[in-house]
Amino acid sequence: MNNELFEALNILEKEKNISKDTLLEAIRQSLLQACKNHYGKNEVNNVCVIIDPDTCDFEVYAEKTVAETVEDELTQISLTNAKLKDPRYELGDVVRVDIKSKEFGRIATQNAKNVILQKIREEERKSLYNQYYEKEKDVVTGIVQRYVGRNVSVNLGKVDAMLNENEMIRGEAFYPTQRIKVYVMEVKDTPKGPRILVSRTHPELVKRLFENEVTEVKDGTVEIKSIAREAGSRSKMAVFSNNPDVDPVGACVGMNGSRVNSVVAELGGEKIDIINWDENPALLIENALSPAKVIYVMADGDEKTAKVVVPDYQLSLAIGKEGQNARLAARLTGFKIDIKSETQARESGDLLEYEEDYYQDEEEYYEDGETVQEGEYPEEGGYDVQTEMYEEHRDDYEDIADDAVMEDSQEQ
Q1: Confidence of residue 216 (pLDDT cuts 50, 70, 90)
Q2: On the CB side of 91, how many CA atoms lie within 13 Å of its CA?
Q3: What rounded mean pLDDT belongs to the chain?
């Protein structure tokens, strides 16, 4: 019987991920409970259970005090009976008396069984919770089981997770046995086992997929700084390289787009824009509005607002369909972005204002032949204007200024 018990405990430990020590403790507690039920007492302090973890041999005994008159058979033993065990016993000595567990009644045995089963269920639930709690905020692969109303039940191996309708990509449909990747948002411990909520729309899903696909992201060489996502349609991701020899965008795209295409395929064809992260808000906003070209950016770091000027023919591209490109750029950077075309900026006088501010700041920072080092920007006025951006579009500004002078002379 002990060999069978030993085998059974090994199987439970392997299949249920419950330690043998925990199961042996459950058996010990069940035997103590059986003693209480057998003797009809709620408190049994003198009963001991010893189990050998290597052989599963167990011993149940009660420590009884030798008394002249026995008032409690569970805690006392007569001197005559004590001397039958060992003639050296005297009144007041403590005698170890074996308890035959086979003599326990049916009710006591059934209660002991229930204690063991309850402990196994508790430990199994705790083990499953700990196992999946470690996967919280991570991506796992699941198998679609069935639709529950408009929600989807996804099997994650040992437990089922619930993919709610509002966490599914719009227009996405599943079929039973389909394998999908989901982001584990939350794992709750309940009396019926762990309750797991997963998502297909969470921005972190994109990040985790790139971590699994791109070695440089996984080892920390390339860092994903920010993600903005409209699930099923488009995502923007800003990346930064901690190694100057590694191109962060190229690493994420992969040869012939192999890496990014794998992520896109997993997300059902969702477009992904990958841009370079920059600590300078002006440059970051310019990158975020990609693929649109930007002439000028004026960013206020305190107010988290930015004004952007783009060529006339790039305005619709910068804003995007139904404002999507501008909306995602704003989420990615954390800035409220106001986009104007060159014509709009000239008519409102904003472009000339930008030029005046730039030249004023340029004069202050180019005194005595000194040059502005990269990363140094005027503190007054809150303008974070990158010098390289202006130099790139200097010809455009001069043409605009010349046009303005020509218009004034013609009017005169």
Answers
A1: very high
A2: 4
A3: 81
